[in-house]
Amino acid sequence: MVEEEVEEAPAIGRRERNKQRVRERIYASAISLFAEEGYDQATVDAIADRADVARGTFFNYFQHKEDIINAWEERRGAKLRTRLEESLSSKEMSAALLMRMCLSILAELNEEERDVAPALVTAWVKTGKPILAEPHIAAIFTELVERGQRRGEIRADVEAERVGNLLRDAYLGILFRWSRVGPSGMDIDQELQYVLKICLRGILA
């Protein structure tokens, strides 16, 4: 029996590790400044100063200040997918339960960043990202609705993509309101689950 050779991923060199550390330091410094001073007031110079790097170093990692917001959005999307992945592979969970879980995870992501999330959501809106970004959350909900239709849990005449967009729009509306009133003034998960409850009444088989 011939053993197959397994190619190991090359180890990250010291130079690359240093670059990753600098990028993370700049990112963390920007996030904290956005939360403390607001997106508009936090300058590139202030971010570089807090990260203890030269102004030019900032631009080696991020072309524009709004690229920090892009990175924040990408990280949240990756966390959502990672936390949902195991559940999505389960054949036992109903589409309705998976949608509830998805909304709870979205609520958790915001609650985990409750000290900075309201400021970052405001910055996200100011940079036009909700309009320009790919509707990944809508795609996830669309996928869950289609899954429910294949299993006979959701009516076949329901347009999955429209439901996905509806739930994304509802999530964004609640997220914006949560950001405005402050985390202590509103239970974001409770609000999201209530909207889903109303939606499910109209689409379940």
UniProtKB/TrEMBL annotation:
InterPro entries: Homeodomain-like_sf, HTH-type_TetR-like_transc_reg, HTH_TetR, Tet_transcr_reg_TetR-rel_C_sf, TetR_C_44. Keywords: DNA-binding, Transcription, Transcription regulation. GO terms for molecular function: DNA-binding transcription factor activity; transcription cis-regulatory region binding. Pfam families: TetR_C_44, TetR_N. Residues 20-80 form the HTH tetR-type domain. Residues 43-62 bind DNA. Gene3D superfamilies: Tetracycline Repressor, domain 2. This is AcrR family transcriptional regulator.
